[in-house]
Amino acid sequence: IEVVRNCSILAAVGQKMASTPGVSATLFNALAK
């Protein structure tokens, strides 16, 4: 674990994420809330 001030990094990794429509939209909509 490393702390970098004023920086955020999010990694989402999962099987078949790239080929499943709407996965990114769902993730970013949840973050927006």
TrEMBL record:
GO terms for molecular function: homoserine dehydrogenase activity. Keywords: NADP. One of its GO terms (biological process) is aspartate family amino acid biosynthetic process. The keyword Repressor does not apply. This is Uncharacterized protein. It comes from Nymphaea colorata.
